[in-house]
């Protein structure tokens, strides 16, 4: 799966869970500062991403996933 | 010391009769029933297969993402509060948020969320349980969301007194303003528990009507053939405001909330006191608190839920507390029983009766019970000048709440 494909997969999740416009989702964007995803919604994003990409994202890893690019890299490395 | 006067400056509701106050009131005056068959698959196995379901789904009003974090009871409280707030004209009034409070209760709380998330827990395990579960099911959730939406900082409270909740929440709002803790309180009740478990629970108590083949005739307070209440869902919210605050900004004033009386039976967990002793004391306290005479109360919006015992116990209490002169109505005949929202919705009906000089009908009162020895607006509206009126609410647990509204 390419980084672009992972990004667009995340964009779908972010739209479903937090109402984020998919056009706003890019690797450089911060989940909290740019996309307005709060901590409870982030939990939903993580669980949905695990299901969608068939990966495990441990709770202690979530705090390192500041940007969409961080999440893409983590998922890319796991899958 | 002169007492602080409190007035009503905004109304909001979403009910089985309409998505707002105007449509609900029109339907009440037309004598329309909001009760319909439950067509959901789960209803097939239940002894009760009718309910008064919302006329307008929250999905038609609030956006999808917001609704993901709201229990149905929270969503409809928010919708009603937004309407009441807009109606009050307070949005751009420069009100200090530290002088704004909220008092919004629910009889049962976020049961739909609790049960839905339990299904997820059983089927898919703990990790799949939504992180929004707790704020969705906590009983203070509706009050908290309403407070958050409006930025209320004078205190957010959630009364729980079963079917007296909506009225008691309004009484608490009155206290908050009288005691100087707030200038404005957004107050009312909400309930959304149309689900097999609450229905099974109430019907195991033999409290609900099983007139499944005639949904619109099922809620029939004071009629000889009544056989229990019909479960309804909805929310009602009023904006309470210190009278001089409302006057200073030239607000439209619907009515005065002149007084409240709250008592407890100390008798039985679900049965009302046989002589209505607690109800009589609540009504007497409300009248004294409002500083009106019995004779001034020309109309009562009764609690009357369509149960065999409760309906007549209230009549006895009204007779003792007021005499036989008031004209009664039971709007639950049309709305069903909104539990924790009932007292708030019926307060709104009482306020509009004062405003319009018209009492909505008690429908389905075809064969009045022999014990009904008071005048009821049966089956059609009654035009009457109503300078002062009473709204009764009683709840499991022995809660009695009476509110007196008067013309401003």
TrEMBL record, chain A:
Gene Ontology MF terms: acyl binding; acyl carrier activity
Main location: cytoplasm
Annotated InterPro entries: ACP, ACP-like_sf, PP-bd_ACP
Cell compartment(s), UniProt: Cytoplasm
Keyword list, A-Z: Cytoplasm, Fatty acid biosynthesis, Fatty acid metabolism, Lipid biosynthesis, Lipid metabolism, Phosphopantetheine, Phosphoprotein
Residues with PTM O-(pantetheine 4'-phosphoryl)serine: 39
Gene: acpP
Involved pathway(s): Lipid metabolism; fatty acid biosynthesis
UniProt name for this protein: Acyl carrier protein
Domain Carrier: 4-79
Function: Carrier of the growing fatty acid chain in fatty acid biosynthesis.
Alphabetized NCBIfam families for the sequence: acyl_carrier, PRK00982.1-1, PRK00982.1-2, PRK00982.1-4
Modifications after synthesis and translation: 4'-phosphopantetheine is transferred from CoA to a specific serine of apo-ACP by AcpS. This modification is essential for activity because fatty acids are bound in thioester linkage to the sulfhydryl of the prosthetic group.
Family in the record: Belongs to the acyl carrier protein (ACP) family.
SUPFAM superfamilies recorded: ACP-like
A Gene Ontology term for the protein's cellular component: membrane
Pfam families for this protein: PP-binding
Gene Ontology biological process: lipid A biosynthetic process
Automatic annotation (TrEMBL), chain B:
Ketosynthase family 3 (KS3) domain mapped to chain residues: 3-407
Molecular function via GO: 3-oxoacyl-[acyl-carrier-protein] synthase activity
Function: Involved in the type II fatty acid elongation cycle. Catalyzes the elongation of a wide range of acyl-ACP by the addition of two carbons from malonyl-ACP to an acyl acceptor. Can efficiently catalyze the conversion of palmitoleoyl-ACP (cis-hexadec-9-enoyl-ACP) to cis-vaccenoyl-ACP (cis-octadec-11-enoyl-ACP), an essential step in the thermal regulation of fatty acid composition.
Reaction catalysis annotation: a fatty acyl-[ACP] + malonyl-[ACP] + H(+) = a 3-oxoacyl-[ACP] + holo-[ACP] + CO2; (9Z)-hexadecenoyl-[ACP] + malonyl-[ACP] + H(+) = 3-oxo-(11Z)-octadecenoyl-[ACP] + holo-[ACP] + CO2
Family matches, as SUPFAM superfamilies: Thiolase-like
SMART domains in UniProt: PKS_KS
Protein name: 3-oxoacyl-[acyl-carrier-protein] synthase 2
UniProt KW keywords: Acyltransferase, Fatty acid biosynthesis, Fatty acid metabolism, Lipid biosynthesis, Lipid metabolism, Transferase
Segments forming a coiled coil: none
Residues the record marks as active site: 163 (for beta-ketoacyl synthase activity)
Gene3D superfamilies associated with the record: 3.40.47.10
